[in-house]
Structures are given as structure tokens and as C-alpha cells.
Amino acid sequence: RRHVLEASQQLTEIINSETSTESPEPSREAEPAEEEDSALHCLWVDKFTPRRYMELLSDDYTNRCLLKWLKLWDTVVFGKEKAVKKTKPSTEFHPPFSQPKEQQNKWKTKMQLTEEILEAELDQHRRPKYKVALLCGPPGLGKTTLAHVIAKHAGYNAVEMNASDDRSPEVFKTRIEAATQMKSVLGANEKPNCLIIDEIDGAPTASINVLLNIIHRKDAEGEAAAGTGRRRRREGGLLLRPIICICNDQ
């Protein structure tokens, strides 16, 4: 393979030298060669990175929990009503065992229990109780890849920001509000944004307080009086977009 690459490189140099002597204008045929050369030198971690949900190699329980949490936003973001699961008639007329609920829950899987907990804890605006998901683990585990793949799989436009870069609380607040309140205007099909904040453990305390204030002050907006409600609307509307935070040190 090395000999073939060396021979092809020599032929390319000969062809380029001949075309440059024949025509003074630079040839455009060299551009695909440069693209192929860049593809050869592309990192494997970029070349073989997962593009779809089924290509993820991370923990399946974590993947499904994050996807389930993100799908709980569908009613608020996309206006989709949750599909009601129909019970099978066979189970209604012929119950398997006459066991109390506590004993039946004992045999449920870990994923089923987590789904029930997530679905039960919705606020008055039909949003998940927890507005922020936190992915933690050592570097190279695939946390950022997981966030991007699941956001794309759920129909969102992933907007990534690094909390360690934006050290100013004002800039941090502006970027969060821009990502969660503005629509994506790139392309014909507008998709809602899903904010991914990387290296949240490197953000200063003031920035973390800004993020907490954005979440908590908007939860109390519906219960506020008319005067305070106007003031809160000036500060920002209701948080209607999911936020995924990533850190190394929980």
C-alpha cells in the first residue's frame, strides 16, 4: 500500500507539473485531490463517529434515559400529544396474578421504573420537572457525541457552547437566552434548538447562578402577580427548550 501511494504521488506531481507548463492558469482538478488527501488524514474518531442513534456504542440505559427525557419536551416544543398506551384485552380479562402493586413494581425493569418517574414529574406547563440533563464521565466517553446524536434523533438543532470559554456571566446569559428563545433560520426547515453546554464544571459560580435563575424564575412566572409578571416577561419568556450540560467532574 505504501508503494502504491508513493507511485500515485509521483504520477500526480508529474501531471501537475505538465499542466502548469501547458496552461498558466491553475487547474481546478487539483481541488478533489486535496479533498481526498484531507480525507486520508482525517482522524478515525471523526471519520467513524456515530451519526445515528443505532450507531451509539455507549451505555444503552443512559442513551434511552436521555432520549426519554428529551421526548418529554415534545408537547411543549412540537405541540405533540403523548400517545396513550392501550392495554391488551387478554391482560384485562385474564390477570396473570392477583398481586399488590408493590409486588408488581418489584418485577419491573430499571428502564420502566425510570420512565414512570420521568413521566410522573411534569410541571404545570407540561414540561419535565428537571429542565437540565447532566452527562458526566471521563474524557473520551462519548458524552458530547451522545448529546448531539440524540438531539438530532429527537428533531432538534443542536447548539453547542463551552462554559469554560464564556467566563463573563453577561455573555453566558446572552448565549443561553439566544439559544433557547430564538429559532434556527438555517435552511428551509426550521428546527427548534437544543442547547448543549460543554465543560459546565469549568464555569464560574456566577454563570451557574445565571443558569439557575433562568430556570427557577421562569417556573414561578405563572404564579406571579400582574405587575411582577410584566417585569418577568421583560427579563425573558418561559423556558421552552431543553438544556443538556456536560462535565467531567460531577
Distance between the termini: 46 Å
| CATH domain topology of the domain at 131-219 and 237-249 | Rossmann fold
Strand order in the sheet with the most strands: 1-4-3-2
- Total beta-strand segments: 4
**Could you give the order of the helices and strands?**
HHHHHHHHEHEHEHHE
Overall pLDDT: 76
Summing up helix and strand content along with how strands pair, one would put the structural category as alpha/beta
Shape descriptor reads elongated
Subcellular location: Nucleus
Protein name: CTF18 protein
Main location: nucleus
Family: Belongs to the activator 1 small subunits family. CTF18 subfamily.
What does this structure look like?
The protein is of the alpha/beta class. The chain has a domain at 131-219 and 237-249: P-loop containing nucleotide triphosphate hydrolases (Rossmann fold), CATH 3.40.50.300. The protein has 12 helices and 4 strands, in the order ααααααααβαβαβααβ. The protein has helices at 2-22, 30-40, 44-47, 60-71, 74-77, 89-93, 101-106, 110-120, 143-153, 169-181, 205-219, 226-235; strands at 132-136, 157-162, 193-198, 243-247. The chain has a 4-stranded parallel β-sheet with strand order 1-4-3-2, with helices on both faces. Helix 10 (169-181) links the parallel strand 2 and strand 3. Helix 4 runs parallel beside helix 8 and helix 10 (169-181) packs across helix 11 (205-219). The chain is elongated and about 75 Å long. The two termini are 46 Å apart. 17% of the residues are buried. The model is unreliable at 90-94 and 220-229 (pLDDT under 50). Residues 129-241 form the AAA+ ATPase domain. This is CTF18 protein. Residues 12-36 are annotated as: Disordered. It is found in: Nucleus. InterPro entries: AAA+_ATPase (IPR003593), ATPase_AAA_core (IPR003959), CTF18-RFC_complex (IPR053016), P-loop_NTPase (IPR027417).
